[in-house]
């Protein structure tokens, strides 16, 4: 469902096991390591306090990191495909490893060499990391419980035409030349959000209200960037949007991470689909996840962007104008997200949090917002 009409004016890291898994725990998901010890303790004590849970989680994480450090130092026999010997007198069935994931060609749990390409590659976490489908499901469920405890959901954000607009320097028109030649004379708000990236020969303009939007949204959501752009571009844009590395950390998904050509999918997002909302200006790339999508009005600041989508009218930059900070698209969408979040976590509901589906709340919430907007327009 679209929140606005489309208009040109209104619209080789380290090979260290411990470091990658520790990073996965801290920046991708608090459930991203194999911490079965905590899960078993939870089953025996359903009333565990949040502080106790976090303490147990940290202890389990340290134990897991230490075990991975040991795996990294194993003799060559394991790298030749021989299973590790596990002491303790357990039965062979108990010792059997289900290989939850593969890192650098080795099982993350038992250390045996793995030659197959099964599971899903999570290249944005690490280029050598793959997770089995059962492990992905386990991590998603575990992370969802923790996220819901903090009254948060997941938000997947597109970059181009959603949060910002970019153009090649060579495509800047004569009427847009003032952006380069008269930068000192530009309004402070424009200078703050306009970037010339010499290394990429590009210019990028952040959408008005984007910093306030991200700050407010981060209180309600764990956020991902998901773009069809290449990874170097995605990382550069993330620096502009999140210079303090507060909102996204390693949750930056680019074109090379997609599992299907010309399509985006939630299969590489470590979040349960029932708790994910998507902001994107292109519906066609989300064929399997339309119910999660809030369709955005495209942001056409530069002339090249307007022309690419077939608009012959002048762009915002050529008009020396921009979207409103307080009443623009991002401010409007933030109000929608606030409403959906409120409906999802409504304490008056009699169903369990884990059974709720933000896709149904999204549809009902958008319908409610639309009806209220119509009534307001007619003076009711």
The geometry reads as globular
Q: Indicate the radius of gyration in whole angstroms.
A: 24 Å
- Strand fraction equals 5-15%
Q: What are the low-pLDDT stretches, counting only 5+ consecutive residues below 50?
A: 1-23, 25-43, 45-51, 64-90, 367-380
Question: Care to count the β-strands?
Answer: 12
Please state how the strands of the largest beta sheet are arranged side by side.
10-9-5-11-12
Task: Please give the largest β-sheet.
Answer: 5 strands, parallel
Average pLDDT for all residues? 79
Number of helices: 13
Order of helices and strands: HHHHHEEEEHEEHHEEHEHEEEHHH
The chain-level structural class is: alpha/beta
Distance between the termini: 24 Å
Q: Helix coverage percent of residues?
A: 25-40%
Oligomer: single chain
Summarize the structure in words.
This protein has 380 residues and is an alpha/beta fold. Helix content is 37%, strand content 12%. It has helices at residues 17-28, 36-44, 50-72, 76-79, 92-95, 133-149, 178-181, 188-193, 210-217, 231-241, 303-308, 329-344, 358-377; strands at residues 101-103, 106-107, 120-121, 129-131, 153-157, 164-168, 194-197, 202-206, 221-226, 252-253, 276-280, 293-295. It has a five-stranded parallel beta sheet with strand order 10-9-5-11-12. Strand 3 and strand 4 (129-131) form a beta hairpin. Helix 9 packs parallel to helix 12 (329-344) and helix 12 crosses helix 13. The radius of gyration is 24 Å and the shape is globular. The two termini are 24 Å apart. Mean pLDDT is 79; it is low at 1-23, 25-43, 45-51, 64-90 and 367-380.
